[in-house]
Design the sequence.
């Protein structure tokens, strides 16, 4: 997930707070009230939110790159327009989320610098390469599918600006997963080469998609507090289970095989059993050792740094104009 | 020197007859580009017919600490609301 | 889909088809170029602006090429080779830095805007309809490019220098926009499209105004580089097509 806690034993943020204010704050959150930017909030809440929302924003922005890799090579005019509109939406979502995080007192530039220095994390999923057109289908189907499961409940998250950003994001994302699955349908009904592409994409994206939900609950240190604060609504394992249960029949419809020999329906629990995610790989990717992690960060850094002159020129022009008008 | 641009708050009128409503913010170097950025960010799906942008630092906001003195005095002035008054059902158009 | 050398015998049909390709290919190639920025722009907001323009242009290309080929614009976009593309040389120029992208946009969108305003009055129902719809999009592109030209030209020393380089790069391709060859003569004679020379003075004045506000000098005229409208392109177009057409060409039987 774009918002899951990505650091392994992350230090819980603890700061001394006025007990009366803290109690009133907890009561408001428990009563499903929204917290707004200028309201009192515990420092731990503020810092956790900045980390989570900026990580979510970074994931949207870095997430433009794997799909952006195929815009110039989309196989029809219709697919090109759809993909460009989708990746553009992700830029918009990154923008909404950076703005939401900025209301907590951290500037966008600080967040972007934290991303470029490697200090801030983003979803592990975007450190995998898009090799074929089928990857564009698989990302829409699996990655956006997983993201939606996390984002829909966040529309009711306790921090007002974040919740409002998520309402907008969810509304706009409704077509993203559908366009991905539509690509998969075309491939699954296509030539032998297209079918091979589709199966290969599922093989490569299945496990990284399950990793998106984050480490197992017993290894996810801040879950309990984040759920109490309504900045997280369901646990990693609950969401992962839900995702597997929803996605398996969709794979069946496509005639594709999920690359997990242990995947089977369990009548008793009313859900699927499935194999163990390779958590060593997950933590390696979190550490920045994903297959194309260097490419992703380099691309983002270059976009920002090579165009500093543009941002400075526009700011200089605004200053000149203001000076002229004042004179 | 910071190379990111100042922040602007964006307000959209969804259609004629409605008030402008706050929808989010954008970064922009000046007011003309702030409008462009607002248009390119917040009205890609026919969301509006009119846009306002205001520099975020130009907004004057009430302090939540003052919410008590600011807003609670209105709570007991129920006579400002139409439901306060008892009018027999058979009287119409009032 | 007729290749350029096997066009139908009717010269009137040839000219009309050729004209549609010019408009459609301009939009397609410029849209493709702008889409290369996606994920790499100077700020998130600019990323959205560039993508919006690219989407407008890809939309225009889709309408026009579909119309030119019985609803199958994809065949024209993805199966023609470089000699059969009819876009002008300006739009195929690589993005370069943001200054060059903006200058290219200013020079093209200003021209496209003047053309489409007149084309919207064409007696040809298709051309008037597409121009009337697209002219609003193009007006926006022109304004945005003008505003950025002013900011970069009258920004910092570095941005002004980059803008001068960009103008120097693009200026030689401007005369092609006003070139009148046999195809265009034919279309003008039939009174279906405007003669671009009729708005050349206005074009130069408009560009001059924007450059003056940007504190940039109008570049000295350079020797015109022509050929795009006849399929003789720069070296860049072949590479653009190699990427754009790779899937349909690698899998000719596939439906996507």
Sequence:
């Amino acid at each position: 997930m774009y918002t899951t806690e990505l650091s392994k034993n992350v230090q819980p943020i603890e700061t001394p707070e006025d007990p009366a204010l803290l109690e009133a704050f907890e009561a408001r959150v428990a009563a499903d009230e929204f917290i707004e930017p200028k309201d009192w909030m515990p420092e731990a809440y503020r810092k956790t939110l900045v980390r989570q929302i900026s990580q979510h924003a970074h994931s949207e922005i870095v997430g433009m790159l794997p799909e952006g890799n195929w815009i110039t090579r989309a196989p029809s005019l219709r697919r090109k327009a759809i993909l460009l509109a989708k990746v553009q939406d992700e830029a918009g979502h990154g923008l909404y989320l950076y703005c939401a995080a900025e209301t907590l007192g951290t500037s966008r530039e600080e967040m972007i610098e934290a991303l470029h220095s490697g200090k801030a994390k983003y979803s592990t999923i975007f450190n995998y390469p898009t090799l074929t057109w089928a990857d564009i289908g698989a990302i829409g189907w699996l990655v956006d599918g997983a993201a939606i499961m996390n984002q829909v409940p966040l529309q009711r998250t306790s921090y007002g600006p974040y919740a409002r950003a998520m309402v907008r994001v969810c509304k706009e994302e409704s077509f993203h997963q559908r366009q991905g699955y539509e690509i998969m349908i075309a491939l699954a009904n296509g030539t032998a080469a297209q079918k091979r592409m589709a199966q290969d994409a599922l093989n490569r994206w299945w496990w990284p998609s399950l990793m998106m939900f984050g480490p197992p609950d017993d290894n996810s240190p801040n879950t309990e507090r984040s759920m109490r604060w309504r900045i997280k609504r369901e646990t990693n394992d609950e969401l992962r289970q839900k995702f597997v249960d929803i996605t398996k029949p969709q794979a069946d419809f496509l005639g594709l095989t999920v690359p997990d020999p242990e995947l089977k329906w369990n009548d008793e629990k009313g859900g699927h059993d499935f194999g163990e995610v390779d958590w060593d790989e997950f933590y390696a990717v979190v550490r920045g050792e994903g297959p194309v992690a260097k490419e992703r960060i380099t691309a983002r850094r270059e976009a920002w740094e090579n165009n500093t002159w543009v941002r400075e020129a526009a700011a200089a022009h605004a200053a000149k104009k203001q000076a002229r008008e004042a004179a | 020197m910071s190379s990111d641009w100042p922040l602007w708050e964006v307000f959209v009128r969804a259609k004629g007859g409605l008030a402008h409503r706050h929808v989010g913010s954008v970064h922009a170097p000046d007011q003309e580009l702030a409008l462009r950025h607002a248009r390119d960010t917040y009205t890609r799906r026919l969301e509006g017919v009119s846009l306002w942008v205001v520099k975020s630092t130009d907004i004057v906001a009430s302090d939540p600490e003052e919410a008590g003195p600011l807003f609670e005095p209105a709570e007991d002035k129920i006579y400002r609301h139409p439901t306060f008054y008892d009018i027999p059902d058979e009287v119409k158009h009032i | 889909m007729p290749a350029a050398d096997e066009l139908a015998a009717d010269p009137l049909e040839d000219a009309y088809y050729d004209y549609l390709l010019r408009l459609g290919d301009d939009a397609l190639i410029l849209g493709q170029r702008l889409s290369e920025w996606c994920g790499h722009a100077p700020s998130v907001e600019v990323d959205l602006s560039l993508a919006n323009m690219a989407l407008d242009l890809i939309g225009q290309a889709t309408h026009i090429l579909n119309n030119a080929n019985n609803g199958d614009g994809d065949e024209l976009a993805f199966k023609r080779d470089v000699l059969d593309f009819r876009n002008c040389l300006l739009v195929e120029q690589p993005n370069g830095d943001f200054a060059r992208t903006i200058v290219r946009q200013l020079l093209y969108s200003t021209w496209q805007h003047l053309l489409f305003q007149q084309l919207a009055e064409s007696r040809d129902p298709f051309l008037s309809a597409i121009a009337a719809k697209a002219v609003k999009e193009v007006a926006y592109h022109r304004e945005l490019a003008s505003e950025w030209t002013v900011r970069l030209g009258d920004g910092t020393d570095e941005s002004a220098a980059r803008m001068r380089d960009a103008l120097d790069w693009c200026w030689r391709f401007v005369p092609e926009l006003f070139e009148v060859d046999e195809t265009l003569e034919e279309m003008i004679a039939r009174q279906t499209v405007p003669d671009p020379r009729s708005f050349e003075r206005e074009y130069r004045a408009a560009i001059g105004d924007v450059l003056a506000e940007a504190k940039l000098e109008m570049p000295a005229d350079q020797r015109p580089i022509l050929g795009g409208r006849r399929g003789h392109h720069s070296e860049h177009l072949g590479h653009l097509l190699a990427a754009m057409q790779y899937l349909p060409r690698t899998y000719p039987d596939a439906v996507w």
